[in-house]
Amino acid sequence: MALTWLDTYILIGTALLAAFVGSVTGGGVTIILLPVLVFHFGIQIAMPIVTLALLAAGASRVVVYRRDLDWPAVLWFTLGSLPFTCVGTYLFTIAAPDLLTRILGSFLIVAVVCQRLFTKPLGGFAAAWFLPIGATFGFLTGISAAVAAVLAPFFLGYGLRKGAFVGTMGLNVFIIQVTKLAVFGNRDFLPPLVLLYGLLLVPFMIAGTVLGKKILERVSERLFVIMIEVVMIVAGLNFIIRGAA
Asked: Residue 225: how many CB atoms within 10 A of its CB?
């Protein structure tokens, strides 16, 4: 399915906005970008495309915030997430699209609830706790790419802020997306259409990340969080309704 020029410009603009917000807040890329992709392509095409976009976003965050990375958190999170990301992604490739759409919508709304419940950061904990956190998140993100928001309380509770928060989450996202792409490729979920639109978004994901870095210290993160939560709720309800139709 080829998009019109207008649809393509909308997709590019959305990708730029999503990467910008992600660079400032550490999340929100999938929340903003995935609903637009699902609208145009359906969920089983949209998910591999957004995986390529997240790969670019994660890599650019690692470069931009490379001096702030917390390597112990990355190591433990990766050890837990890799095998369970493979399992979750495999389940995505064999599940019914309607069921996946409802699951996606539910996760979006649950993520907002979690962010509101954890208005204060969790108490400090050791980096080794990212092993089970990574395992749980790996499985969930394999099924639905829109669950990154539920990680925020844990990384904040661990003590990461600003560049360390955004960069460390970005590296973890990058590693997970590489794993997902390997599974998608093995399951023939990377046709030319996915690669075309996925690669089209890469330079705009990078540009959005660089732009976000320049104003990270000057903007109100609270405003971005509220914007993301509104998008999450609207998109979540939309996906639940679409999946039940």
From this structure: 18
DSSP label at residue 70: -
81 vs 32: CA distance, rounded Å: 24
Whether 115 and 152 have beta carbons less than 8 Å apart is answered as: yes
* Helices 162-186/43-64 angle, 10° precision: 140
Spatial distance between the Cα atoms of 58 and 174, rounded to a whole number of angstroms:
5
CA distance 78 to 162: 21
Domain boundaries, the chain: 5-244
Nearest to 245 by CA among 42, 49, 57: 42
Q: How confident is the model at residue 165 (pLDDT cuts 50, 70, 90)?
A: confident
Q: What is the DSSP string of 127-194?
A: GGGHHHHHHHHHHHHHH-GGGGGGGHHHHHHHT--HHHHHHHHHHHHHHHHHHHHHHHHHTT---HHH
pLDDT in tens, 87-100: 888 888 887 656 76
Report residue 94 as tokens: 């064999």
Using only C-alpha atoms, the chain has a radius of gyration, in whole angstroms, of 16
Rounded to an integer, the average pLDDT of 177-203 is 86
pLDDT band at residue 75, thresholds of 50, 70 and 90?
very high
pLDDT at 146 over 80: no
The mean of the pLDDT values for the chain is 81
Q: What is the pTM of this model?
A: 0.75
State the Cα–Cα distance between residues 25 and 152, nearest whole angstrom. Answer: 10
Helices and strands per DSSP (H, E), number in the chain = 10, 0
